[in-house]
Design a protein that fits this description.
39% of the residues lie in helices and 14% in strands. With 270 residues, it is an alpha/beta fold. Strands 1, 2, 3, 4, 5, 6, 7 and 8 form an 8-stranded mixed β-sheet that branches.
Length: 270
Amino acid sequence: MSADEPTTSSDLPHIDVSVPSPARIYDYWLGGSHNFAVDREVGQRAAAAMPTLRAAIWANRAFLRRVVTHLATDYGINQFLDLGSGVPTVGNVHEVAQAANPAARVVYVDIDPVAVAHGRRLLADDDQTTVIRADLRQPDDVLGRRELTDVLDLTQPVAVLMIAVLHFLPDTDRPGDIVRTYRERIVPGSFVALSHAADDEDLPGEQADMITDYRRSTQSPFVHREPDVLARWLDGMALVPPGIVLTNQWRPDEEAKRILRTYGVLARKR
């Protein structure tokens, strides 16, 4: 099954298709086909409310591509753990990493059954990549899975990617502790990459209305956090230049456009 084949509910495990999914909404924003009408309705309302939203989504995807390419080519990283990976779409981590290093190995982790089902079909013939349905909030469970350790050697450097996912965790989930646990379990020379939504300075009222609708529709939390919070989560790690910046300002390969504020950072464990 290719990444652009349309989704039908008969292809998937039992899910409630009346409830929009953040993973499928994100897929819609990226132009993917693994989403349902209910996801598109929420996505369309959000994009109409915030004219810089789609640019931010694409900037985030480009940030992921640049980070993975940089890690594979400049640091020789050939192991990637993508937490909250979402629905398969163009420019997946394994495609980018293996283009730079054919030996690269990738484990995708997501809690959404649509993301996992499509990922497994897409990667059925790739023995260097696997998809696990698990909750990233349970690092010990994730890192202890046989499916993960069959692909990744955690005694060697690995890149842990948490791209546009931690803003779905409320403070009560203690996302900083989650990040720190993954940091503690990887060896020196490993990396952590984050991207995270923040308050918009240009259209705060519109953003607030959009987030209210998004939370109500998806029944999911969504929390904006500022760069100082990300810095605390990564305290003690070496931030790769240019540090914590807007995603489209992190080693850009094209002119940065105005985006809904989303910050990105890459950090190395000493």
